[in-house]
Design a protein that fits this description.
By secondary structure, the protein is of the alpha/beta class. About 40% of the residues lie in helices and about 20% in strands.
């Protein structure tokens, strides 16, 4: 299963969500589908998508927040899972694309590649109430549909191939992205 196919399948569901992505391939694949101002790409901030997503979810409990994360990024900030479980934002869906690789930073093998480190087991151990581990697009879509229907915290660990986009380059720098994201949230808050 490819991460790009998963993101493409979910893209229509992101219209009214606040979406936070890690840097690199994941961000590029979402951006290539068509940028929306409710997307925040954490460029040059590996490991922080889960923490930023948690902060957004806690600050805006009436908004659905989706974090698109990676195994390497989450491994850099494993404590985030315990913090997310502790604060239990019911509006947060945390999707971790596990390709067993630090693809966006040189393609080095991550700890999950050996089969010893299991991010779904870690999420369960941290106290996340709903955790799915999937390896086919069908199972991914089923887990995502359940997470979007469920008014509770969910984590999906999707085992994907270690392949990325054939190019990198966004015509949107981090400060501009942050301003647009904030403006989207403010304007959405003003709607009746």
């Amino acid at each position: 299963m490819k991460r790009a196919d998963c993101i493409k399948a979910l893209y229509p569901e992101f219209g009214d969500c606040l979406v936070v992505t890690i840097m690199g391939a994941c961000a590029q694949e979402l951006y290539d589908l068509g940028h929306r101002d409710n997307f925040f790409y954490l460029q040059h901030a590996m490991g922080l998508a889960s923490s930023i997503g948690l902060g957004v979810a806690l600050s805006l409990p009436h908004e659905r927040v989706v974090v698109l994360d990676g195994d390497g990024s989450l491994l850099m900030n494993l404590g985030a899972l315990a913090t997310i479980a502790r604060y239990h934002p019911a509006n947060l869906i945390h999707i971790v694309f596990d390709n067993g690789s630090l693809l966006s930073t040189g393609g080095f093998v991550s700890h999950t590649a050996t089969g010893i480190t299991n991010l779904a087991a870690i999420a369960r151990g941290a106290g996340i109430p709903h955790v799915d581990e999937v390896s086919t697009l069908y199972d991914f879509l089923e887990a995502a549909a359940d997470a979007f229907d469920r008014p509770d915290l969910s984590v999906i660990v999707a085992k994907v191939e270690a392949v990325g986009p054939d190019h990198f380059g966004m015509d949107l720098k981090l400060p501009e992205n942050a301003f647009r994201f904030e403006r989207f949230i403010r304007e959405k808050q003003r709607r009746p």
